[in-house]
Amino acid sequence: MAEAGKAQPRYKRILLKLSGEALAGEQGYGIDPAVLERITEEVRRVLELSVQVAIVIGGGNIFRGLQASASGMDRASADYMGMLATVINGLALQSALEQGRLQTRVQSAIDMPAVAEPYIRRRAIRHLEKGRIVIFAAGTGNPFFTTDTAAALRAVEIGAEIILKATKVDGIYASDPMVDPYATRLPKVTYIEVLNRGLRVMDTTAISLCMDNKLPIGIFNLNTPGNLLRIVLGDPAVGSFVA
User: Fold this and answer.
1) 3-state DSSP call for residue 14?
2) Which of 2, 164, 202, 228 could pair covalently with 42 via S-S, beta carbons 3.0-4.6 A apart?
């Protein structure tokens, strides 16, 4: 339980969705140790409130299956390569978290026992209950599904109360804020609005899965220190929500 006097979190079990590109930092490719260190500190502050944390991570900083497929590679093979990239990122994040003295487990949807546990739902939940961070790697284990869909699937399976998607912007906008300086932030939208307006929150399969299971999605800027803690505490000034 959270100690007396500490702010009480709004959520007790969250799934944090990280993009592979986020790990690359300013270098644009590969893994930036400074980013891993920053993520570790963000996660630590949430764990100190006894919040259970699961993480799904992408692989776009190493390999993007869709881009390779567009260049002529077989789509299934390209997607499997992308899944392997998420395992690399998962192991890198695990190393950083454990150097920060946080207990972690990596579970892979593709069987590779030398480097990660197989994904087993009940085991993952037990790890969370023991205060361990569980990193879900290799997507769903199937081609043609994104890590957004993997995040939605795992969140529903483990009973997470919300998906928190870390991005480079501080919420959902009516237009791309990187292009339109007058883009307005939308504090809260419905699943149907996201689908009908084509808002770039998560892919349509992930949104539909969240809608069917009434799983809310929070979008926030990972680059602002303390934002993960603020959104977990329910700060209305942080992020946008789909519900």
Assistant:
1) strand
2) 228
Q: Which of 222, 226, 96 shows the shortest CA–CA distance to 164? A: 222
pTM for the complete prediction? 0.92
Determine how many CB atoms are found less than 10 A away from the CB of residue 82: 26
**Residue 108 contacts by C-beta under 8 Å, 6 or more apart in sequence?**
87, 90, 115, 116, 117, 118, 119, 137, 138
What pairs with residue 53 in β-bridges?
A: 14
pLDDT of residue 1: 43
Show the CA angle centred on residue 204, arms to residues 135 and 107, nearest 5°. 15
Does residue 219 contact residue 171 with C-beta atoms inside 8 Å? yes
Distance CA 92, CA 133 (A): 14
User: Whole-number mean pLDDT of the chain?
Assistant: 92
